[in-house]
Amino acid sequence: RVLWPTPYDQAKAIEQFLRQYRYTLEVELPGSEEDVVDYFLFDLQKGYCDYYASAMVIMARSLGIPARLGSGYLAQPADEHGIQTIYQINAHSWAEIFFEDYGWVEFEPTAAFPASSPIEMAGELAISGNSTEVMIDPLPLPPQQKKSLSLWWAMGALILVIPLGYWLRYRHRSYGDQPDAIQQAYAQLRHGAEKLGQPTPPSQTPDELRSSLTTYINNISDQWYVNHLNPPMLCAEIQRLTIAFEVRQYSGRKPSMEPGNRGWRFIRTRLILLRLANWLKKERRR
Question: At what angle do helices 262-285 and 49-62 cross, to 10 degrees?
């Protein structure tokens, strides 16, 4: 049985799932090679509106649902003179999902704010007023993978890392070897492969990484959740990125493919969804 049969049901399910994450303004920054949404969903598991809204947009897009990030300010009550004063603290981000014949509909995945109100839609998006499909308990959060360091361990790490950071910064400046968009995208691809359980030893070449990832994707392409991710296109985009990195890294020429475009976003969303699907598959076996 399909628990979330319509795009609207799926969007509400994503909203309910994300509202289980703890809201806080005090968060640790992700590493330079980590994807922010991946970091929020699996490692940090807390954050503020930007994290929630970005995660919902990426998860909705990975299901083929048009989604965008909205940002602005929350309206405040007017004072006795009718003046509405808005401060920086009132800034907010939310997710918007597009439904044909209805336009962009706002959703509120951030836990500290009221959830979006259910709406009635006609046709293929219809949900009855008595429907329980989107009222089922949301799926549990994936197990947190990163543990906070103790104070003494953190202080010791800082003593070692700070001098090393200055040395690396000086070295990069000396050689003019600042990472560009292609190098950063390839580093995130390696990080995504590691999160999927694919080894990425330092000796691995870009072509070996491509071969390892595409073999992994092809081996699970018969799974129902993988078919929705367009495996042939995913493998093709991974190949384009690794070729672009090889050209950039070993020839010094600027390749025609820029990973910041649609191709890299396509890879990124699919890797995140694959990781979520793998976790859900493990949960079902328990």
Answer: 90
Q: CA 242 → CA 185, 199, 205, 213, 250, distances in Å?
A: 10, 16, 9, 11, 12
Quick one: pLDDT at residue 124?
46
Write the CB contacts of 177 (distance below 8 Å, at least 6 apart in sequence).
171
Q: Is the dihedral of CA 89, 90, 93, 95 positive or negative?
A: positive
For the stretch 100-115, pLDDT in tens is: 888 999 999 999 888 8
Average pLDDT over residues 219-237: 81
Among candidate residues 18, 60, 42, the one with its CA nearest the CA of residue 228: 60
Pair of tokens at residue 126: 């219809």
Strand 67-73 and strand 91-99: pairing?
antiparallel
pTM of the model: 0.57
Q: What is the pLDDT of residues 6-56, one digit of tens each?
A: 899 999 999 999 999 999 999 998 887 788 999 999 999 999 999 999 999
Calculate mean pLDDT across residues 241-270: 75
